Amino acid sequence: MxxxxxxxxxxLSPTQQGMxxxxxxxxxxxxxxEQSISTLQGNVNVSACEQAWQRIIARHSVLRTGFVWKxxxxxxxxxxxxxxxxxxxxxxxxxSLLEQQAQLQAYLxxxxxxxxxxxxxxxxxxxxxQTNENTYQLVWTSHHILMxxxxxxxxxxEFLSFYQASSQGQDLHLKAVRPYKDYIAxxxxxxxxxxxxxWQKNLKDFTKPTPLGITAERLDDSVxxxxxxxxxxxxxxxxxxxxxxxxxxHRLTLNTIVQGIWALLLCRYSNEDxxxxxxxxxxxxxxxxxxxxTIGLFINTLPLRVKLEQQEKLWCWLNNIQSYxxxxxxxxxxxxxxxxxxxxxxxxxxxYESLLVFENYxxxxxxxxxxxxxxxxxxxxxxxxxxxxxxxxxxxxxxxLHLKCVYDQRRFDSADVGHILEHFLKLLNRIIxxxxxxxxxxxxxxxxxxxxxxxxxxxxxxxxxxxxVQTQRTPVEEVLAGIWTEILGKECIGNNxxxxxxxxxxxxxxxxxxxxxxxxxxxxxxxxxxxxxxxxECAQRIETKIRTGEKLETLPIKPxxxxxxxxxxxxxxxxxxxxxxxxxxxxxxEPTGVRLTGLLNITALEQSLNAVVSRHETLRTVxxxxxGQPVQKIQPITDITIPIVDLRVNERSPQQxxxxxxRIAIEEAQRLFNLAQGPLLRVMLLQLDExxxxxxxxxxxxxxxxxxxxxxxxxxxxxxxAFSQGKSLTLPYLPIQYADFAVWQKKWMQGKVLETQxxxxxxxxxxxxxxxxxxxxxxxxxxxxxxxxxxxxxxxKDLSDAVKLLSQREDVTLSMNxxxxxxxxxxxxxxxxxxxxxxxxxxxNRSEIEGLIGFFVNSLVLRTDLSGNPSFSELLRQxxxxxxGAYTHQDLPFEKLVAELQLERDLxxxxxFQVWFxxxxxxxxxxxxxxxxxxxxxxxxxxxxKQRCPFDLGLLLSEQPEGISGCFEYKTDLFESSTILRMxxxxxxxxxxxxxxxxxxxxxxxxxxxxxxxxxxLTQEKEYKNTVRQKLxxxxxxxxxxxx
Length: 1044
Prior knowledge:
The structure is a single chain. By secondary structure, the chain is α+β, with helices and mostly antiparallel strands. It has six domains: about 5-175, Chloramphenicol Acetyltransferase, CATH 3.30.559; about 205-355 and about 390-455, Nonribosomal peptide synthetase, condensation domain (Chloramphenicol Acetyltransferase); about 465-545, Non-ribosomal Peptide Synthetase Peptidyl Carrier Protein, Chain A; about 570-735, Chloramphenicol acetyltransferase-like domain (Chloramphenicol Acetyltransferase), CATH 3.30.559; about 740-1015, Chloramphenicol Acetyltransferase (2-Layer Sandwich), CATH 3.30.559.30; about 1015-1044. The chain contains 29 helices and 31 strands. It has a six-stranded mixed β-sheet, with helices on both faces. A six-stranded mixed β-sheet has the order 9-16-15-12-10-11. The protein has a six-stranded mixed β-sheet with strand order 21-22-23-18-29-28, with helices on both faces. Helix 25 crosses helix 28. The relative contact order is 0.08.
């Protein structure tokens, strides 16, 4: 654009910004494209028609507007001094009526497909098709970002005036209109705090979108292209007249009555008495004189919240709705995104899924007429706002009340939509026939069997084009986007995409915080990402921290001299002490196995193992004492030879060989380590046949954790892929080793850092019980053996999906949701209202240590207060708060906490907690899910049963594509397998209750579990009696035969 051609430049309104993004997000969708089809009757002067439209464009600056966003801090609208619009003309008189209709539909589709380049005004097109001697079809196509439906009648009136003047050779001068930029200036002057307070008050305690009916099923991920259907109904003219009279007598608008009817239907469909749906408002501020004739985009979509008291009188209730509408007028300019933030819904959930549009334009334009031209607006259509909602109702009234429903065909069947419209008419007619009807009576008009069934739409991760998502990015947002892309493994992440919707979870959130610390040199709490889960929101908080000059207090982790005595980390100290107290214990052996299928190059495998051991000092570390204090000692690099056990001899069957492999694996997992002599990594290769091997790897926990085991196997595979092909490999340089981390930890965890962490944990655990009184099947042995086993289970896919959906609605992670269910189950068994559960956290919250093998994992104590008979939803919110607090203070080593609390040591009881909880996301390093393909070789997991359990009871859950799977790990000295099996069944029962009734009270949940147990016991007794009866009948039958 040439500067001399520019008349004005100013920002976009919030609604325009939303439309700009949505258009750029889906440039070929035709979104927000408006088409109006009018029939012109008369001897049309085509030249006068063109001149009239050109005068309109010259008169209204918004019709000369284009939009710029690239390389701009914020998008801008640019008004040109002059813009020409052409009128496309075609003669269709030779076609039949059917052919003309086909031609018109074809043109409309091709016109939609063309779309608009938003940077090139005019963002409107005109086409005129002559269908017979004095009849024309005028198609007016424009982009909704310029103007709303209010403007159409105004422009057509002006068109008729300019056309008549031009065709008569006259020069018409209309009164000047207020430009759209005055509205943008007015927006800047509004009190945002007042707007925020209004919406916070009106949306208080609103925590989930109003259901539109009964959830029927979840749609498959592949069903992602919206397709919309339309149905309509009419209230006859007689009843419409009566309804208008009733509205007038009660000083109500028809809009309010229609809103009330939809609110009633939503209450019936959702079985709730507090509902929210969207409504459209004109958005034209009354304080701006002349604004009613301004052409521009003012319309806004805002939530209407309606609460129902069934005994309340209909007209009083409707008056309350109208009062809300009147109060809303001064807030019609509210930014929809900011309104959402004022609610208590998570950002990824919509405030509402239905929209009610009552078309109440200042001029009715179904027909306009001058001396020589008549205009009939036969049709108007748009692709835009309604496509964001499952249901959109378009209401208009002339002699008849007309209601059209536009619905997402993925979500609703046409029959159900038909019922909805019938219900509308039914309630309207009931009001007309009995104006004193009660709300309760109106609700009862809707049969339960006709409540619509709604398919839940699987949320898919938005994938946008790069130029779209980079729009309006600040430098901080750019850095954040790069970090998210790296951590989440997804390209083109938008500023408003939710981290947790994109697959993020607490473990990945920790890595993001680590990267942010490195990038901005400020300390950022993990809670930031949970509370501000979008790039835009998180960037704002980071920018505030940068402006306030907060500096990073964390010491950098630097290499230290190996000539000095190297201390143990806090976690290592505890394991070392336990080994001194109980040296014959294999509890902290960490075994795993890998099945190798194919042609194995054993020499390359040994070279790979040696390369990994050379790379990680911790694999060459032993633990000795100097002056009574334990120290780390790093052994020199020596070549390791892998012992091979050949199981091909003696012509064993495959089943026998497999059994022997498992026996050897158990023996190897239980073989003790000597921490002072080492090595603390053992490797053994079992050969089953020419192309099948099992590689057993065992490390002591003092040098490893689950994350480390995954690193070991991945690096082993990387080196093998190179060495087996005769190539070399250089992995990314490790600037520090585990010993450097241990030294750093001792220096850092003191002073203010230690004080802050300890203060939190001491306050959190004040007066906490030290033991969980979990009933056991067997008396606790005097000397613990740590002998244990597992009970695996799989939650059904439908239940897994429902639990995930509940997590989204309640703004908690899946892990928090499942932990709450676990706490509830523990309460059922113990009746303790104060429960402590241990949970492991990777504790790799600094980028330097993410690639190291070592013992980093930390234990967090999660305390839950179940007193006061809370609802499950309340427990979820408590778990979220407790978990985020623990994550924020995760740096205090559990061992240091135990020492500071001066707890009495008892080998029979783990300090603070005796039960634990663990959750693994799909993205969590998990060697049991690791499958790698190498040259001539495939690596897959080999399950090793450790047959040990350091805690009384543990619940491990993992998110997999097929659903949520899990296992209870338990001490066989304490529990029978039947008890644990019953726990798995009770957990499923509990989850099925809460996904349908998240507000169920704790005591009610307990009763549900009792009923389930009783029912199961009765079933088992019945089955047992049937079995006994059948056996007795067989015995009797056999006895009778013998006697004969």
